[in-house]
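Researcher: I'm comparing several assemblies side by side, and this is the next one on my list. It has 230 residues spread over two chains. Same procedure as the others: predict the full complex and return the structure.
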Amino acid sequence: AQTVTQSQPEMSVQEAETVTLSCTYDTSENNYYLFWYKQPPSRQMILVIRQEAYKQQNATENRFSVNFQKAAKSFSLKISDSQLGDTAMYFCAFMTYYGGATNKLIFGTGTLLAVQP
Amino acid sequence: DTAVSQTPKYLVTQMGNDKSIKCEQNLGHDTMYWYKQDSKKFLKIMFSYNNKELIINETVPNRFSPKSPDKAHLNLHINSLELGDSAVYFCASSLAGGAAEQYFGPGTRLTVT
């Protein structure tokens, strides 16, 4: 069974600085997808970035980028130029393809990020 | 334009009652999901439906019964509510197959007293 581990329950960063959130996963599959979701206090789940396992190039979305190390099964999220609005719970998620018609997300336990002014 | 909507957003009820949560998506997706987020913020899938057919049932108690009247709707009915059912329930939808992105609703906070 696939598992996702986020070893940092809480992190804090100063506004405008850079922070990296860690995520490791365990799977025997070769083709899969990885995601980072953000959940602000409003509790809405917002997709931040995604990475296809077959792609060697790390995904980037504006201030958000990932460091994907397939052999190490590591998928960290880097937030550059942190903003107050980045304060949220961040979830790493693994997507397994479930037999043809659908798929399911397996989530880590989350990292609560606080951006300090 | 709300993509995935849930009603109600908050639900407070007593143990033993039966309640339903409704979900609707206007994205034209054919796959819908229910996830549960517990008090420690842990998210776990409960069910998924594709074209009104149940695909995933993650060892959820029989008291939980999803129903999909059409592709755009997935409701969750809970019988004989227990204290441990208190959680936030998220509906999500996606296109079928591959690594289609899942779009989440705003969540329903269920509190059982």
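Model: For your comparison table: The radius of gyration of chain A is 14 Å.
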